[in-house]
Amino acid sequence: MVSHRSTKGASKARRDHINHEIKNMRALLPITLEDQERLSYLHSMAVICTYIKKSVLFQGKFSYFLNVLTNMKD
């Protein structure tokens, strides 16, 4: 007879860890604490992903314009 160990504890630990990390990332968003607390975990992840995408996009455009300005001086 094969004994199956319960993964309930491990699953809860993973969920708790994920939720903790979402809270940490949500705290970094440039929104009020009140707005942060109103976000569900799903909405938090959506806003976090959008914020990261826009940050990368604008950083890339900013770098592009810096390169253009730098090359204009030469």
TrEMBL record:
Residues 4-56 form the NPAS4 bHLH domain. GO terms for molecular function: DNA-binding transcription factor activity, RNA polymerase II-specific; RNA polymerase II transcription regulatory region sequence-specific DNA binding. It comes from the Eukaryota. Keywords: DNA-binding, Nucleus, Transcription, Transcription regulation. This is NPAS4 bHLH domain-containing protein. It comes from Maylandia zebra (zebra mbuna).
